[in-house]
Write a structure and sequence with these properties.
There is one protein chain. The chain is mainly alpha-helical. It has one domain. Helices cover 64% and strands 4% of the residues. The chain contains 5 helices and 2 strands, in the order ααααββα.
Length: 183
Protein backbone atom coordinates (compact mmCIF):
# COMPACT_ATOMS: atom_id res chain seq x y z
CA UNK A 1 0.00 0.00 0.00
CA UNK A 2 2.90 2.35 0.71
CA UNK A 3 4.19 1.85 -2.85
CA UNK A 4 0.80 2.85 -4.27
CA UNK A 5 0.57 5.84 -1.94
CA UNK A 6 4.07 6.90 -2.98
CA UNK A 7 3.01 6.61 -6.63
CA UNK A 8 -0.15 8.64 -5.96
CA UNK A 9 1.83 11.30 -4.10
CA UNK A 10 4.28 11.66 -7.00
CA UNK A 11 1.56 11.61 -9.65
CA UNK A 12 -0.57 14.18 -7.81
CA UNK A 13 2.46 16.42 -7.45
CA UNK A 14 3.30 16.18 -11.17
CA UNK A 15 -0.29 16.90 -12.19
CA UNK A 16 -0.47 19.82 -9.75
CA UNK A 17 2.75 21.27 -11.24
CA UNK A 18 1.30 20.96 -14.75
CA UNK A 19 -1.86 22.74 -13.56
CA UNK A 20 0.22 25.47 -11.92
CA UNK A 21 2.20 25.94 -15.13
CA UNK A 22 -1.10 26.20 -17.02
CA UNK A 23 -2.18 28.99 -14.66
CA UNK A 24 1.05 30.89 -15.29
CA UNK A 25 0.88 30.34 -19.06
CA UNK A 26 -2.75 31.47 -19.10
CA UNK A 27 -1.94 34.65 -17.16
CA UNK A 28 0.96 35.45 -19.48
CA UNK A 29 -1.06 34.79 -22.63
CA UNK A 30 -4.11 36.77 -21.50
CA UNK A 31 -1.94 39.68 -20.34
CA UNK A 32 -0.02 39.64 -23.62
CA UNK A 33 -3.29 39.44 -25.55
CA UNK A 34 -4.70 42.51 -23.77
CA UNK A 35 -1.43 44.43 -24.04
CA UNK A 36 -0.98 43.74 -27.77
CA UNK A 37 -4.62 44.51 -28.45
CA UNK A 38 -4.41 47.86 -26.64
CA UNK A 39 -1.02 48.92 -28.02
CA UNK A 40 -1.04 47.54 -31.56
CA UNK A 41 -4.66 46.47 -32.13
CA UNK A 42 -3.36 42.93 -32.78
CA UNK A 43 -4.50 40.41 -30.17
CA UNK A 44 -2.78 37.05 -29.81
CA UNK A 45 -4.61 34.59 -32.10
CA UNK A 46 -6.42 31.73 -30.38
CA UNK A 47 -6.36 33.16 -26.86
CA UNK A 48 -10.04 32.58 -26.16
CA UNK A 49 -9.91 29.00 -27.45
CA UNK A 50 -6.68 28.18 -25.62
CA UNK A 51 -8.00 29.58 -22.35
CA UNK A 52 -11.35 27.78 -22.55
CA UNK A 53 -10.23 24.57 -24.24
CA UNK A 54 -6.75 24.03 -22.81
CA UNK A 55 -5.88 26.03 -19.71
CA UNK A 56 -9.20 25.79 -17.86
CA UNK A 57 -9.60 21.98 -18.15
CA UNK A 58 -5.98 21.50 -17.06
CA UNK A 59 -6.45 23.84 -14.11
CA UNK A 60 -9.77 22.23 -13.16
CA UNK A 61 -9.11 18.49 -13.44
CA UNK A 62 -5.41 17.84 -12.90
CA UNK A 63 -5.08 19.04 -9.28
CA UNK A 64 -8.21 17.23 -7.99
CA UNK A 65 -6.26 14.37 -6.38
CA UNK A 66 -3.67 16.80 -4.99
CA UNK A 67 -6.37 18.75 -3.20
CA UNK A 68 -7.95 15.55 -1.86
CA UNK A 69 -4.59 14.14 -0.79
CA UNK A 70 -4.01 17.26 1.30
CA UNK A 71 -7.62 17.10 2.52
CA UNK A 72 -8.33 20.64 1.35
CA UNK A 73 -11.65 20.07 -0.39
CA UNK A 74 -14.51 22.09 1.02
CA UNK A 75 -16.26 20.31 3.87
CA UNK A 76 -19.51 21.42 5.47
CA UNK A 77 -20.29 19.61 8.69
CA UNK A 78 -23.80 20.76 9.52
CA UNK A 79 -25.05 17.44 10.90
CA UNK A 80 -21.93 15.26 11.18
CA UNK A 81 -20.29 17.57 13.71
CA UNK A 82 -22.78 16.25 16.25
CA UNK A 83 -21.91 12.57 15.58
CA UNK A 84 -19.72 10.71 18.02
CA UNK A 85 -16.06 10.50 16.90
CA UNK A 86 -16.46 6.80 16.14
CA UNK A 87 -19.56 7.50 14.03
CA UNK A 88 -17.72 10.24 12.13
CA UNK A 89 -14.83 7.86 11.44
CA UNK A 90 -17.15 5.21 9.97
CA UNK A 91 -19.17 7.74 7.98
CA UNK A 92 -16.03 9.24 6.46
CA UNK A 93 -14.60 5.78 5.81
CA UNK A 94 -17.65 4.60 3.86
CA UNK A 95 -17.83 7.93 2.08
CA UNK A 96 -14.46 7.02 0.52
CA UNK A 97 -16.10 4.01 -1.15
CA UNK A 98 -18.96 6.15 -2.47
CA UNK A 99 -16.51 8.77 -3.80
CA UNK A 100 -14.40 6.02 -5.38
CA UNK A 101 -17.43 4.70 -7.26
CA UNK A 102 -18.48 8.17 -8.43
CA UNK A 103 -14.94 9.04 -9.54
CA UNK A 104 -14.70 5.67 -11.29
CA UNK A 105 -17.86 6.40 -13.26
CA UNK A 106 -16.60 9.90 -14.12
CA UNK A 107 -13.26 8.44 -15.22
CA UNK A 108 -15.01 5.97 -17.48
CA UNK A 109 -17.36 8.54 -19.02
CA UNK A 110 -14.66 11.16 -19.63
CA UNK A 111 -12.28 8.52 -21.00
CA UNK A 112 -14.86 7.45 -23.59
CA UNK A 113 -15.38 11.06 -24.64
CA UNK A 114 -11.63 11.74 -24.79
CA UNK A 115 -11.00 8.68 -26.96
CA UNK A 116 -13.91 9.68 -29.22
CA UNK A 117 -12.48 13.19 -29.64
CA UNK A 118 -9.06 11.66 -30.33
CA UNK A 119 -10.46 9.42 -33.09
CA UNK A 120 -12.27 12.27 -34.84
CA UNK A 121 -9.31 14.64 -34.40
CA UNK A 122 -11.30 17.31 -32.61
CA UNK A 123 -10.20 20.91 -33.14
CA UNK A 124 -11.44 24.49 -32.92
CA UNK A 125 -10.94 27.38 -35.28
CA UNK A 126 -10.49 30.93 -34.01
CA UNK A 127 -9.69 33.80 -36.36
CA UNK A 128 -8.62 31.35 -39.03
CA UNK A 129 -6.24 29.47 -36.73
CA UNK A 130 -6.86 25.72 -36.32
CA UNK A 131 -6.27 24.61 -32.72
CA UNK A 132 -6.28 20.87 -32.03
CA UNK A 133 -8.11 20.36 -28.75
CA UNK A 134 -8.47 16.60 -28.31
CA UNK A 135 -5.30 16.12 -26.16
CA UNK A 136 -6.62 18.19 -23.27
CA UNK A 137 -9.72 15.97 -23.10
CA UNK A 138 -7.53 13.38 -21.35
CA UNK A 139 -7.02 15.70 -18.37
CA UNK A 140 -10.45 14.83 -16.94
CA UNK A 141 -9.96 11.05 -16.91
CA UNK A 142 -6.43 11.56 -15.53
CA UNK A 143 -7.69 13.70 -12.66
CA UNK A 144 -10.74 11.56 -11.89
CA UNK A 145 -8.77 8.32 -12.29
CA UNK A 146 -6.15 9.39 -9.79
CA UNK A 147 -8.91 10.51 -7.40
CA UNK A 148 -10.59 7.11 -7.81
CA UNK A 149 -7.35 5.34 -6.93
CA UNK A 150 -6.78 7.63 -3.96
CA UNK A 151 -10.30 7.04 -2.62
CA UNK A 152 -9.90 3.27 -3.11
CA UNK A 153 -6.71 3.33 -1.04
CA UNK A 154 -8.32 5.52 1.60
CA UNK A 155 -11.23 3.10 1.85
CA UNK A 156 -8.87 0.14 2.05
CA UNK A 157 -6.88 1.89 4.78
CA UNK A 158 -10.14 2.56 6.63
CA UNK A 159 -11.11 -1.12 6.42
CA UNK A 160 -7.67 -2.23 7.61
CA UNK A 161 -7.49 0.42 10.34
CA UNK A 162 -4.28 1.81 8.84
CA UNK A 163 -2.85 5.19 9.78
CA UNK A 164 -0.52 5.45 6.80
CA UNK A 165 -2.72 7.67 4.64
CA UNK A 166 -2.98 10.63 6.99
CA UNK A 167 -2.29 13.72 4.95
CA UNK A 168 0.20 16.40 5.85
CA UNK A 169 -2.71 18.62 6.89
CA UNK A 170 -5.34 16.26 8.36
CA UNK A 171 -8.82 17.69 8.66
CA UNK A 172 -10.97 14.84 9.90
CA UNK A 173 -8.27 12.55 11.27
CA UNK A 174 -10.01 9.50 9.82
CA UNK A 175 -6.84 7.44 9.96
CA UNK A 176 -5.75 8.41 13.43
CA UNK A 177 -6.31 5.85 16.15
CA UNK A 178 -7.79 8.40 18.55
CA UNK A 179 -10.08 10.49 16.37
CA UNK A 180 -10.63 12.98 19.16
CA UNK A 181 -6.93 13.99 19.05
CA UNK A 182 -6.90 16.53 16.24
CA UNK A 183 -3.93 18.73 15.51
Amino acid sequence: MRFLMSFIDKATFVLAIIAALAVVMMMVQVSLDVLLDLLFNTPVPGTLTLVSSYYMPLITFLPLAFVERNENHIAVEVVTQFFAPRGQKHLFGWTFLFCCIVCGMLTHATWIEAVDKFHIGSFSIERGVKIVNWPVRFSAPAGYGLMCLLFALKFLAYLLGAKTLTAANPHHGVFQEDIGAKE
